[in-house]
Amino acid sequence: MTRFVPHPRLLDSPRHRYWPAYPTPVTRNRQELPPNSAEVVIVGAGPAGLAVAAALWHVGVRDVVLVDRDGRPAGRFLERIDLLDQRVLRSPYEHHPGVEGYRDCELRDFARMHWGLLTPVERNEIRMSQAGHRSVVPVDVFAAYCQHTAELHEVPHRLWRGVVRALDVTEDRVTVRGDGFAIEAGQVVLCQGEERRAAPAEWWSGARPAGVGYWDEPVPDGVEAQVVVGAGLTAAHLVRNALAAGGRVAWVLRAESERYQCSDVNASFFRAEGRARFDGRSGPVPWADRLALMARERRASVMFEFRPSFEAAEGDGRLTVHRGAGVRSVSGGGVELAGGRRVGGDHVSLALGTVPSIGTGLLPDELVGARDGWPDLDERTLAYRRAPGVFAAGAAACMVLGPAARNLDGHRVATARVAQTVAARIRRVAHV
């Protein structure tokens, strides 16, 4: 049997190349505030928020306000990607923030429309996708497609920069409160994404030591020996960047070995039969079974493309991989592993994964109804059971839609349920 291992050159797609200009987006003064009322408020304009806004546009819901801390479509998502110097997405061309069931231009078609801007390697990935094989998407293509989707569905005209601090829920309204503004809304959709997972409290006492950073913080210049803690794709980018800069890397893995695979979850969870293993709409699914599946399926993994270069770097001594190594403590000079062994370096980068934002801090805890870190959502609508005017899309819906809820394709599934419910409620109110 032949094993196909993709070539690392797929990771070197160009970034920030020229793309055809779109109409100038609406630019607002930083002090300008959003309107004080709307039928729907979307909190977050990342890929999930963009998908929800586009879907609502298609079902005729146009009185929509998006509030986002960055103030541009997918801005924070792309900012994090660029911090890691990530050039391709793990998601294939089939997964994108477009709208399911409508004749919008899909991501692969958008890439083909700009064929002349693509490299031969990128063009071959499109051919692979057309043939039904695995493909990876250049970040440049995805970023341009997000802008295209935003313009097509008039998102820039509805998007304000701001930080939402709280949601006040009454029987028929939700007030979205932020710094200097309050918006009265009929319904609210939370598309907050995920935040970095903090290091365990026992790794250090007091303030975080100097010389220790997280994956979403820049690595200081002049680091020659870097320690990377974590086993996922983010850790792999940190390792690759350090090697490309001519440095030495110690890579600390809690697992016994690296886990190379195409997707971060089993492909079955992108299909209806996989979601049925979580989705109580087709019959009761025990909570314990869902937790067990999430624990098994959300394990960290790395794209196949990294493997050849990492094996070469390990072979020539530039990369040292500490497998099966639990961390006991962390300092600016390195980490101490279980058993007392010490791994030294100039800088420690922590890539410990992410945790979903589930509404805690915006909604009162009793309305979130958190259980084992997940919100209490209606499985048909993705509304909070105790706050039915508030919905969740993205990673917060994992215990309803399965682990793929945090991926781009999962956003589309969540968006379809949310948009249909929101539109139906608006029509029902209009007829009363």
From TrEMBL:
Q: Tell me which domain of life the UniProt entry assigns to the organism this sequence originates from.
A: Bacteria
Residue stretches making up the FAD-binding domain: 38-88
Q: Which PANTHER family match?
A: L-ORNITHINE N(5)-MONOOXYGENASE, PTHR38663
Q: What is this protein called?
A: FAD-dependent oxidoreductase
Organism of provenance: Actinophytocola gossypii
